[in-house]
Amino acid sequence: MLEIDGLRKRYGDVVALDGVSLTVTPGQMFGFVGANGAGKTTTMRIVMGVLSSDGGEVRWKGAKVGHDTRRRFGYMPEERGLYAKMRVAEQIEYFGKLGGMSPEAARRSAGDLIERLNLTERRGDDVDSLSLGNQQRVQLAVALIHDPELLVLDEPFSGLDPIAVDALAGVLAERKAAGVPVVFSSHQLDLVERLCDSVGIIKAGRLIAGGTVAELRARESRKLLRVVVTGAAPGWTDRLPGEIVSKTDRPRHGAPDAYGDDRYDEVVLMPTDDQEALRVAVQAGRVQHFAWQQPSLAEIFREVVA
Q1: Cβ neighbours, 10 Å, residue 13
Q2: pTM, whole model, 2 decimals?
Q3: Which of 46, 174, 234, 306 is 20 to 30 A (C-alpha) from 69?
């Protein structure tokens, strides 16, 4: 288990971290989200020993993390940390040997990762000849080569196409299933929502919200109702009780629907009376959808950091 306890870091008058604390348990995928400069990368660099903290502690399995412990971690920095003129397979094997593997074990593990990450046709290419997406795959292989006990990944999905995202997500899911804690930061909140068991939202060096996506949704102050009605006369939404957050009010594209309705209205409402909202919708036309709307992680993030 990774424990980050009260981390503090200053750069002159700038407070980069202000008492950040979090825990990542075995087999948990933790998504670290925040705006640029919020403190995500600083936290990860302190975990990996790239930076020193001004206060607080990082513990692994209950003991303070030191150099020998960090050798058992896998780290993927946001900036490329690769040797541009080395060939792909040679480079991955090299980092495996730096992690303490025998040449034979490093070669075998590199071959498995190259195949798993769809790099087989690029194994003999220099890294600087690869696309940014393929360089990202090599960077991940370097982080995974020595079978780490913990994975710390800074923006691992940046620049990847959907196929590469799926491949990387699959590899991380395998490590998670094997009991490896995975910490990754990302601005792609849809991916964080889809992949992570737990999420931490950081702002100005402070962790301001955390928990599962379901727990974060439960803290959402607004309860939003999504209503879809076809065949209604224009202006019916004016009778809805409460605050209209968004509204789509337009003719249907193409032919009328099966009921001959040629108008489609979608409203997201913060109602004062949901039963009255239903009555108004039924009177207006055919109700195609009427349900409470689950806020996305992006919506939660915007509200929390506002």
Answers
A1: 5
A2: 0.79
A3: 174
